[in-house]
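Write out the 3D structure for:
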Amino acid sequence: MSWPQTGCAPPPRTLASPAARVAGLAGVLLILAGVVAIGVAVVAQVHAPRPSAAAAGILGPFEGKAYGPLRRSLPVSVDIPAIGVHSKLLHLGVSADGTIEVPPLQTRAGEAAWYRYSATPGQLGTSVIEGHVDSYRGAAVFFRLGSLRPGDTIEVTLADRIVAVFRVTGVRQYLKSHYPAKIIYGGTGFAALRLITCGGVFDYATRNYLSSTVVFASLTSSRPARGTGG
């Protein structure tokens, strides 16, 4: 709570009527109830799962076998059955400060985004899809990303009605202060996919997570999208 932004003190108190005093008491009780609710919400906050050491896996192609690559086609949606994700894909670029643009937190936290300066999913090279772990309203699209394990599937539907099927090869968490950009965004000799979200400890002072959760995956097959008759 704070004073109105006028720089003035509140007006002098006047003697209140019984009805006003009752209304005031009710207002105080509502404020206290709100404070209690906020406290309960903070205490009961569910943290996103973190990758286990066993899930670190490898950064190369799944089982050492490179599949594909596919021709260039813009991604439309992503499905991750193991964690119940189905999301249309935004196409985002670079923010004014030079960082990768992220979906608007207030309005699009439930959607993932493909980084449009990366390879399209299934092309030779590294394709990047990112999304929020949570929002002011609760869990966001990639809240459970850290619970993925090597072997889990990621399906990306492309504009040419082909579904690129990837397998997770590793799931790792990196401090943002030691973020291995070359490993994550650098070129590869196979069709690679990276899924990225925030993770680790939340810094309440800066209101940012201190780490990133990164899923490494590689293309293992492709198929026609449902309804294409292929």
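The longest helix spans residues 18-43.
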